[in-house]
Amino acid sequence: MSTHAEHAGLAVQRWTTTSIASSLGIAGFVGLLALVPVALSANAVDRLTTLYVYVILAAMWNALAGYAGLVSVGQQAFFGLGGYFAIKLSANGVGVYPSLVLAGLIAGAVAIPISPFMLRLRGGEFAIGMWVVAEVCHLYVNGDRSTNGVTGTSLSALNQYAADDRRNYNYWLTLTMAFVLLAILFMLLRSRLGASLQAIRDDEDAARSVGVRALWAKGVVFVLAAVGCGAAGALWLASFPTFQPNSNFSVQWTAYMIFMALVGGLGTFEGPIIGAIVFFVIQDQWGDQGVWYLVGLGMAAILFALLLPRGIWGTVEERFGIRLLPVGYWLRGLRPRGAAAGTEAAA
Amino acid sequence: MAWLNQVVQGVLLGGYFAILASGLALLFGVMRVINLAHGDLAVLGAFLVLVMTDHGVDAFVSLAVVLPVMGLVGVLLHRLILERSLKSGVLTPLLSTFGLAIVIENLLFEKFGADQRTINIGSLAYDSWTITSQIIVGKLYVLIFVVAVAVLGLLQLFLSKTSLGRAMRATAEDPDTVELVGVNSRAVYALATALALALAALAGAFLGMRQTFDPYSGNTQLIFAFEAVVIGGGTLWGTLVGGIVLGVAQTVSYQMVAEGWIKDVWGGAGAGHIVFLVVLAARLVIGAVQERGGLRTVLGRA
């Protein structure tokens, strides 16, 4: 399973024993998660469904910032559009569950014509430029009378299902979408594209100069992130059927994504999942504290950005040399930075 | 005449945008940082003025206290957040200032609640000059425009004529090299941040005099400031040009709504966003921003 390219006494290794075990473990774990509705309470099913939406959002934002170096403050554009398209499709005779899936894809399609323009912007220009795009999408939806403009509407087609069935369908669909999106992201990052992206993130000009097609590579991630955020926005409606442009297009969604990705570990595959769990627990415990809860999230974002930029998982990875899902490489014969003797990679 | 009136109002509104944008552009020009808390810091400035006027201090007199205080906040912002952020890559300042924005607006909400506020400036709020029967300009709006031109003029003089200003431009070019000729780039950065925040607070004070604001008004102000900077091409006087274009787009669009040409959602801010995106797209197509950085520095042209 491991690739060896002997060169100067070093060998490139992708799969470690830990990562093979963890990949198999994940397959088993996802299988177990699929059984949750059978085993756990309705409340637990609802909460886990919400958690999976957070996982999607965190992973997508991390794909942008952690791998493509794109800090977007406008991902609420796609979250909002996902919900909006789900409602439009469902109102126009498409089945409600197919609508939820298609909505994400349409949100991704919207990202395609936007990408050549926005991706030419660097750093902060891209960040706020995306925010403007989100505002424009928001205003467009505000102006749509068929969804009652600012007042909003709800995904009423869901009512045809009994509450228990609906809960379980939502759960399985959200779990499947989260798994598929993360799997696609994983494959992308392991492909040639992943290496291109990290080169771009580290130094775009240098990457271009050695022939990396920066715009194309960033475009793929940008569109995938739009599909993911759109899917999340649509799936959110399955649990919380009221669609109000002012809240579905709120910049708060991006704030949550940034928090989850930063806390979990920007630029690590596992980090955003951990970040989503942390966020979920925090929201569960302190979400009713309103303003102070948001102040806390902002403070945490500042502190992590400044003091622990690799987040929880990035720090663990660095300190112990563990990698569960290998999107990178180990160089055998070299110790990963900070790795203690006796760990996999250093063996 | 209704159209001409809207154009006049838009030009005057552009003065406000220019002040708002100048702080953002200055920080970007000197430190390559886009401060995502800029709008919220402006609103913080507005609330500081509001608190002083509530205690009977004249709004304009209060600026003599608020602007230096915000300058000090700027020094702290540099020492505590920006300096560390800059060390860990180009993305970190975006993340940390975004976090700061969330903290500021929610603390303001905690302290002042959701009420819409205005800063009391007596009759200046509605005094006006009648140019023709249909063109009436508010004295406050004219004052803001004049202050905008004065602020930009003073900034230009500072950057081109004083040794400190020249040191700032040199630091913007190359912070390591200027150290060799005895410039303390750390102090220059702190000063630039202080200036940027004082400018933000000045803009915030005018925001509060012109219209209502609340703790969450900052996001919109950040977007407006950014749009003005980009439309104007990133130069110092460009912020005035960008501000005027944005202002005219916003005010004229209200007339277009009134005429039934466009949906009401596109009146005001929406029209500004569209003009911004069109300018951006046009410029990208022409390839004029292909040079490094995109936004050309404020200082290169000063």
Description of the structure:
The complex is a heterodimer of chains A (347) and B (302). Chain A is mainly α. Helices cover 69% and strands 3% of the residues of chain A. In chain A, helix 3 packs parallel to helix 7, helix 5 packs antiparallel against helix 10 and helix 12 (252-264) packs parallel to helix 15. Mean pLDDT of chain A is 86; it is low at 1-6 and 334-347. In chain B, a hairpin with a 5-residue loop joins strand 1 (128-130) and strand 2. In chain B, helix 2 (38-54) runs parallel beside helix 4, helix 6 crosses helix 8 (185-210) and helix 9 runs parallel beside helix 11.
Topology:
The complex is a heterodimer of chains A (347) and B (302).
Chain A: E1 11-13, H1 17-34, H2 36-39, H3 42-68, H4 76-91, H5 96-118, H6 123-142, E2 153-154, H7 163-190, H8 192-202, H9 204-209, H10 214-239, E3 242-243, H11 245-248, H12 252-264, H13 271-286, H14 291-307, H15 311-320, E4 330-332
Antiparallel strand pairs in A: 1-4, 2-3
Helix pairs in contact in A: 3-7, 3-8, 3-10, 3-12, 3-13, 4-5, 4-6, 4-10, 5-10, 7-10, 12-13, 12-14, 12-15
Chain B: H1 2-31, H2 38-54, H3 59-87, H4 92-112, E1 128-130, E2 136-138, H5 139-161, H6 163-173, H7 175-180, H8 185-210, H9 218-231, H10 238-258, H11 269-286
Antiparallel strand pairs in B: 1-2
